[in-house]
Each structure stands twice: as structure tokens, then as C-alpha cells.
Amino acid sequence: MTDLLSTTTHAAGAEPPSVPSFAVISGEQVKKALEGSEKQLVELVEATYRLHGAGDSVNPPSYFLRFPDRPTARIIALPASIGGSVHVDGLKWISSFPENVDAGLPRASAVLILNDHDTGYPFACLESSIISATRTAASAALAADWLSRNRPRPRRVGFFGTGLIARYIHTFLARTGWTFDAIGVHDVSADSTEGFCGYLRHTGAAEPVTVHDSAESLIRSSDLVVFATIAGRPHVTAPGWFGHNPVVLHVSLRDLAPEVLLTAANFVDDVEHCLKADTSPHLVEQRTGNRDFLNGTLNDVMLGRAAPPQDQPVIFSPFGLGVLDLAVGKFVYDQVARAGQLRLIDDFFHDLRRYG
């Protein structure tokens, strides 16, 4: 387990804080710093959830910037602060423009700003679409592990939505010890499906891959179902499709109708964050007027305060916490710094004398 939970203290008589240098870390550097560290990153995400659950973090509600002339698009600000050994503040600024996909561009783009704990000065700007995908995939792999510990381990995985997030989740599952008897895929885009199957072939995945022509077929044939779509409202409405009680990683948050959640055991990453912005769990709360349908958080499961049942579908709906981006972003920064490859902008801060 990472030492993220350890605390950081400043020695008495330490030098007063100074203005930090400012670094820009590119997507290429981010990818290189993260590649091959999947197990370590899942441990980092687990430790971050525990730290957040213990109250050593600040994670305000995300802010959604929406546009009347572009109703499908949004840009989200996720401010956060985390203690422990990470001891950093910051902000992820991530856009989601679904129409990018038609132009051959990824839907999401993002930057992450890291702020110095003592002075508040930003000390790094990192390309963050890779960081965001990484923390999402690490969270999904962690949830798949914990939510299946008291039941037979899933042997058939199904990916509903076959874009970048699905690819990252498969990578994290494969590199943290998961093997399957079969992989199923389903997407409304034939090009996306073909691309994802090509990725699976390229990685040398040994499992047979089946392309399902319907959502029902995919779900009924999978013990572990991964939703990684761009759906803006529920489109899976039949609880009976989940009658075999799979573990469901509801990463895209808005695929499942309230009827499905009301027949399942429901776990989230953070209750207040997840039950807003018309996510599927938020729609259940609006319909019922309460939160009784929630069984707990993933941290509750890790602490033994909640246990997933074996006789119901188990659904994990993670909103995605800014503290996870900070933890992964600081991991990247430290890796790049240790390699001596920080690209510093020495004159980024200017006019630092209070009276000139």
C-alpha cells in the first residue's frame, strides 16, 4: 500500500515559503510517467479514497460550464485539496464535447493545475485527459476487485461503450491480474467497436471477443459489465437483463434507468457528489425522495462497513473525485521531477515585490 496516508509536517524553524518554479508537463511525459504502473496507481487510488473518507481532503462540488448554443458540450471545474503525503491543492479543468468524435478527435480534453500547499502558487500545469482516464480506470479496477470479493470472481466481462475510457479500464484490469473466459463489446458506433477490437488484438488479449448487436445480449452474457458511454440520459431500462446479478461499473453515470438501480445494491464514490447533475442515482433520489437505495460508498466496503450482497446486481456509480486527479497528477509530477525532465518556465511569475 502506498504511503499516501502518512501526514506531512514542517519542522520548527524551517525556511519561510518561497515562490515555486512553474513547470508544464506534456501529455507525452504524462503517459510515460504512468505507463506500467497500473498496480501502484490502483493502490494510490485506494489510499486516496481512504484519505478522503477519513476527512483529510477538501472536495467541493464540481462546477459545470454549459453553453446555450452547444447544448451537448460542457466544461467542468473540479477543485480539490488533499492532505497526507501528497499535500497539494489544485484544479482539473476538463471539457466534454461529444461532437469531437465525429471529427476524429477525443471527446474530452483537460488540464490539471497543482498549487503549492504553503503559498498557494501554482507550480505545475499538466495535460490531464490521460490523468483523468487513468484515475477513472484505476477506480474501476479497484471497485471491481472489492465488490466481487464475497462472490464468485467475474469470468465474463462486457464493455458497453468502446472509446478511450473502455480501453483504459481494460488495460487496468488486464495489468492488475484480471483474466476472463470471454470479452463482450457493444457500441452504437461500428467504427468504435472495430477500433476497440483492434486494440484488443494489438494487446494480445487471449480471451475470445464477441461483438454483441444489442445491449441486452451484452449484459445478459457478462458477469462484469462496464458502462463507458457518452449517454446523457438513461437508455437501459429493463431490470430483468441483470437477473444473473452481475457487478456493474456504471462509469458513465447516466446509462441506467431508476428501475434498474432500485432492484440492485448501489455503491458510489461520494454520496453528495454522485447525487446531482441528473446522474442515474440522482434520478432515483428525485423519484423516491430519499437515498435509501444506496448501500454505501466504496470506502465503506473497504472498511467493512458495507458488504455487497450475492443475490442482487451490484452497481458502482463513481462521479469522479478531484482528489484522485490530484493524487495521480502529483505522482506524475514527482516521476518527471526525479527523471530531471521538468520543463520550467523561469519567468512565469513576475513583479513579485509588493511595492515594486
Write up this protein.
The protein has eleven helices and 15 strands. The chain is α/β, with parallel strands linked by helices and 356 residues long. It has an eight-stranded parallel sheet with strand order 10-9-8-11-12-15-13-14. Strands 1, 2, 3, 4, 5, 6 and 7 form a seven-stranded mixed sheet that branches. A hairpin with a 5-residue loop joins strand 4 (70-82) and strand 5 (88-96). Helix 1 (27-34) runs parallel beside helix 3 (129-147), helix 1 (27-34) crosses helix 11 (322-338) and helix 3 (129-147) crosses helix 4 (164-175).
Please sum up the structure shown:
This protein has eleven helices and 15 strands. It is α/β, with parallel strands linked by helices and 356 residues long. It has an eight-stranded parallel sheet with strand order 10-9-8-11-12-15-13-14.
Number of helices: 11
Mean pLDDT: 93
The radius of gyration is: 21 Å
Hey, roughly how much beta strand do the residues contain? 15-25%
Low-confidence stretches: 6-13
Strand ordering within the main sheet: 10-9-8-11-12-15-13-14
Helix and strand succession? EHHEEEEEEHEHEHEHEEHEHHEHEH
Q: Number of DSSP strands?
A: 15
> What structural class is derived from the secondary structure elements?
alpha/beta
**N→C terminal distance:** 49 Å
Work out the helicity level: 25-40%
Largest sheet: 8 strands, parallel
Write down the overall geometry: globular
Pfam family, one: OCD_Mu_crystall
InterPro entries: NAD(P)-bd_dom_sf, ODC_Mu_crystall, ODC_N, SbnB
Protein name: 2,3-diaminopropionate biosynthesis protein SbnB
